Amino acid sequence: MKLSRKFLSDYVDIPSDVTTKQIAEDMTNVGNEYDSCEKLIPATNLVIGEVVECVDHPDSDHLHVCKVDVGTEVLNIVCGAPNCRKGLKVIVALTGAELPGGEIKKGMIRGVESNGMLCSMAELGLDSKFLSEKDYEGIHELDSDAKVGEDPIKYLGLDDEVIDFELTSNRGDLLSILGMAYEIGAIYGSKVKDIDLTYNASGNIDFNLNIETDNCSLFLAKQVKNVTIKESPDFIKNRLIASGIRPINNVVDISNYVMLELGQPLHFYDNDTLGNTIVVRMASDGEKLTTLDNEERILSKDDIVITDGTKAVGLAGVMGGLSTEIEETTKNILIEAAIFNSIKIRKTAKKILRSEASNRFEKGIDPKRTYMAIERCCNLLKKYADATIVDGMKVIDNTNNTDKEITVSLEKINKVLGTNIEKKEVIDIFERLGFTVKEENNVFTVIVPTRRLDISIKEDLIEEVGRYYGMDKIQGSKLILPLKEGKLDKTRRQIKNKMISMGLNEALSYALIPESEVHKYTLDEFTHINLADPMSEDRKTLRYSLLYSLEQIYKFNKARNFKDTCVFEIGKGFFKENYEYKEELKLAGLMTGKYYLNINNTNVDFYIAKGVVEELLDFLGYNGRYSILPGNVPSELHPGVSASIILQGKEIGIIGKLHPSITKDNVFVFEINLSKLLSNRTSNIKFKEIPKFLGMEKDVAFVVNKNITNKEIVDVIKKSGGKLLTNIEVFDVYTGEKINSDEVSIAYNLKFEDMNKTLTEEEVMTVFNKIISDVENKLGARVRKGE
Amino acid sequence: MQEKVEMLCKEIEEKISNITNLKDLTDLKAEYMGKKGIITELQSGIKDAVDKKEYGMQVNTVRTTFNEKYENKLKELQEEELNRKLESEKIDVTLPSKRIRQGSKHPMTRIQEELEDLFVSMGYDVYDGPEIETDENCFQKLNLPIGHPARDAQDTFYLENEYENYLLRSQTSTGQVRVMEANVEKGPIRVVCPGKVYRRDDDATHSHQFMQMEGLVIDENVSMADLKGTLETFCKKLLGEKTDVRFRPSFFPFTEPSVEVDATCFKCGGKGCPLCKQTGWIEVLGAGMVHPDVLKMSGYDPEKYQGFAFGTGLDRFAMFRFGITDIRTIYGNDVRFLNQFTKGDEHNETK
Asked: Which residue in B98, B330, B102, B99 sits closest to A567, CA to CA?
């Protein structure tokens, strides 16, 4: 909302020593933040001059050499404007003037000295939407009564300053200069001036009004006859310009002027093209209307329309229709001032066009202003468009416009704000705001005018007190509440710390991915979730697996020549199941490049990645309850270098090498469904007695067919070893010349222990021999003898 | 005999002192102490001796002398050999170590954990809710009914075919609703809800996915002054002890009164710079007293309880703390970026 200082001063007196910047700051301090505060015309060092001589430049076919009287002296100025001529009153930018295009300097133009510039309105920095073709064709021509030597901006009435506010959505009342006047008046203790609403009327209204929807709570229709369409007076034009609205003609300008003044959007119909009936109703689906901007709009049953009884003539609250537009020839006018349902307007405006009008309807209108607005229009139309006002008005009013009465105690105010504000100060604040206040036993009964639509409960009043007392004057206090332990689930932190300690970088990527990628890195069948209105195809779908994101991170870094990527991420995977939206916490990792750093560094391989997973699972307390086994894995993984991570018979994750079709590099990934994993409880640490007797170790290497896995051998060893066998470690794996090419040799170190005694060689050998024969018999293995 | 013994002792002493390696020493031992060694032979001469006691004593003197000298020499030679071995085993300790590559904690996690720890130490629980939410929890129960103009400030991602029904949460205030609803006794609450949120926005200072933290305290006597004190602690912790906090009145549908909270500009320390638009202040939080309607909608009695709530974007704090200028860097996952965060937590350091 743009606030013109001049416009404001029509309604409230602000001490002249208060700068506009100060007003902006003070408004910010009561909660109305400003975005900018600037002069309407930022150019400096301008003066009214008269061209006393104008001859062609000797060296140019379009430049003129002028002598310009600026009051104190006569300047030599070269000017290229075609309309430059002797006797013209012009705007002169003196040497040193700051214009939006730069500083004016003394200079030579094709050999002729030039001490300044004759200006067009465009060169002064006025927004292009206020400029006509004339303004671009040449310099601005001032009227002959302009006094040489004076300030041209002041002469034009454009010596204004504008504050642009970013208002909060509850303060619809501030979308009017009058509302601003109340708010700013409260800051400086100034009373708001009365607005002239007087006019004479004659004749009798001849009009039919009907409302066929609940979405229009108030509709006023007033007839005005015999207007003269012409240019608006300067004060109206200038205030519109300062408010960012382009002047058109007196009648249209008055409707905008009153909207700015009072916050009530108005619509003027050509009464002759409209006829004598208005019916407000909801549009039907597919109904068409050509709006003022000459666009054909297709409407729906959610849009409110103004009709002439049969066809739509306006899109309520958003934009008028072309067929009943005010034109140069318009004589008779029907004024509409109404209040429409804010939610419906918001919806229509969002779909079709956000306008000054719709913005105000969305935020709410005070019904009192609706009536005021009609009267103000009549007053101005009579004065500036020679109108005849028809007596009487058609009114359909279902609003409640009685002032609200709210009570609040001094105690409650101070309890909420944490302050010790005194009674006198509270009363003063309410009175400055224009509220009526009565006090009894420290309880205030406040009558809030209808213009303050945002105030309805005592907390709203407490906020008013806080705003004008100064929220920042509240002193911070140390909140004292009963001691209690703050609860925090540290599992996620522990996992992160563990992964980090194992050399992985924590990544943070976007949960939204392309729809085409959502079923990758998983064999699960699930319904994925799309956004209704994504920003782009790349961010359309909620990810299920995090591995696509990690693959992208790997590729991103590889493209930057960075090959040692080891990253993990913890995030949600999303899906829909039985009409319910589900999210599961997942941990994914990607590892490639160097892992052990040294002169002879070691690159990541499957077993390093597997080690990371096992370390984590053991750390979380799942030791001995999981296994990593060959299984069905998604096609993004190498079928021979991948496995399922199984916890108590259920798959909780996958691990493997990226398929060569994705990358030729050795890249290893894993993903664990943490929601599934962590739903399995783990037991607390409990001390076990340390064996008092020394154990014995035996080594054995089995040669088996390559199809036999280590796990199969270990399972047999475990079963045969029984209770005495307490640990199994693989210490060598061999394939090569010394055995057949389809064979592999795996060497194990077995540890035997007994809690109650020292084992004898015989006891151990009995078990050891049983293990050997079982492995040989069950798996077709043979013991590899030492060479 | 005594003369012979003296000679022998002298000879032993001389021979041992000339020995320079273990082998010669071992040979010498054999020469004197072996089965046919000089001392062994001498010993066997006892059977012919007149005064056997005297003879024995003399032989013993020789043996003792030998053993003493021998042991000393042996020690000396072994020490020399060990020293040679140690010398030969010397390595270049300045060569690269053998270690696994370093991992790093993401800057957002650092900020999140730091704040969680601060609030947990003040008795707040940490709550993490779902990222897919209902319109009801994200807006309606926060006093933003359908069609409310304040919804404009948050361009929401609705799920396909779920307009005004299901969405990606646009604010962690959803946690506030969930915690209030879940509290069956409708008693006091102290909670913070950090997490990911989503809005239709993407530029150097906005990302469509970012992190927020909501805080909520409900009790019988909780005021704006307590809110300010709490946020002062919060801002000092995150931005440094010299940070001041300023309240500006504002509007949020779920709080009344509402304030925007500014902290002393962390770039210029309040002197004024381009970052703070010369004001010396940076907006860091939105806050206020929980709106009575919000309390009511979640079953609380606004006559008995009042409370405050605050919400803040964590990304900005991370950007400040680590000097990151473009928010997209945070979500870019350039390993050269991530590798800069290998240092341990800095929770107790102040700026």
From this structure: B102
Token pair 């020469």: residue: B31
Contact A643, A701 (CB under 8 A): no
Residue A491: predicted pLDDT: 94
For residue A170, give the nearest of B97, B251, B335 by CB distance: B251
Q: With bands split at pLDDT 50, 70 and 90, how would you rate the model's confidence at B347?
A: low
Q: For residues A404 and A456, what is the distance between their CA atoms, to the nearest angstrom?
A: 7
Number of domains in chain B: 2
What chain A holds in terms of domains, given with CATH numbers, is 2-37+164-188 (3.30.56.10), 46-156 (2.40.50.140), 201-397 (3.50.40.10), 404-473 (3.30.56.10), 491-678 (3.30.930.10), 696-783 (3.30.70.380)
**Tokens 């391989």 identify what position?**
A605
pLDDT of residue B350: 46
Distance CA B179, CA B176 (A): 5
Residue B6 distance to chain A (closest CA, Å): 55
Instruction: Give the mean pLDDT per block of 10 residues along chain A (787 residues).
Output: 94 93 93 92 89 83 86 87 86 88 84 86 85 82 88 91 93 95 94 93 92 95 94 93 93 96 95 94 94 92 94 93 92 95 91 91 93 96 94 92 91 94 95 94 94 92 95 90 91 96 96 96 95 92 97 96 94 94 97 90 94 96 93 93 95 96 95 96 90 90 94 94 93 92 94 90 93 94 80
A291: nearest Cα among A313, A329, A321: A321
* Calpha distance A703→A709 (Å, rounded): 11
Degrees (nearest 5) of the Cα angle B198, B202, B205? Answer: 100
Report the DSSP pairing between strands A201-202 and A388-390. Answer: parallel
Residues in chain A: 787
Mutate to test the interface with A, among B121, B143, B256, B336 (most CBs of A within 10 A): B256
Tell me if B105 and A506 make a contact (CB, 8 A cut-off): yes
Whether residue A516 contacts residue A631, with contact meaning beta carbons closer than 8 Å, is answered with no
- Distance, in angstroms, between B221 CA and closest chain A CA? 7
Residue B351 pLDDT class (50, 70, 90 cuts): very low
Residue-wise pLDDT for B181-193, tens only, equals 999 899 999 999 9
* Domain shared by B139 and B79, yes or no: no
* Model confidence pLDDT, tens digit, residues B91-100: 999 998 898 9
**What's the rounded Cα separation, in Å, for the pair A28 and A30?**
5
User: What is the secondary structure of A188-207 as a DSSP string?
Assistant: HTPPBPPP-----EES----
H/E stretch holding B80 reads helix B52-88
Q: Residues near B60 by Cβ (< 8 Å), separated by ≥ 6?
A: none
Give the residue from chain A lying closest to B232, CA to CA. A476
Distance in angstroms (rounded) separating the CA atoms of residues B160 and A265: 36
Question: Position of tokens 């400030």?
Answer: B153
Nearest CB to A595 within list B101, B231, B250: B101
The reported pTM is: 0.85
- A-chain residues within 8 Å CB-CB of B244? none
What span, in angstroms and rounded, lies between the C-alpha atoms of A647 and A685?
20
d(CA B21, CA B25): 6
The answer as to whether B30 is a domain residue is yes
**Residue B61 pLDDT exceeds 50:** yes
Domain of residue B190, residue span: 107-341
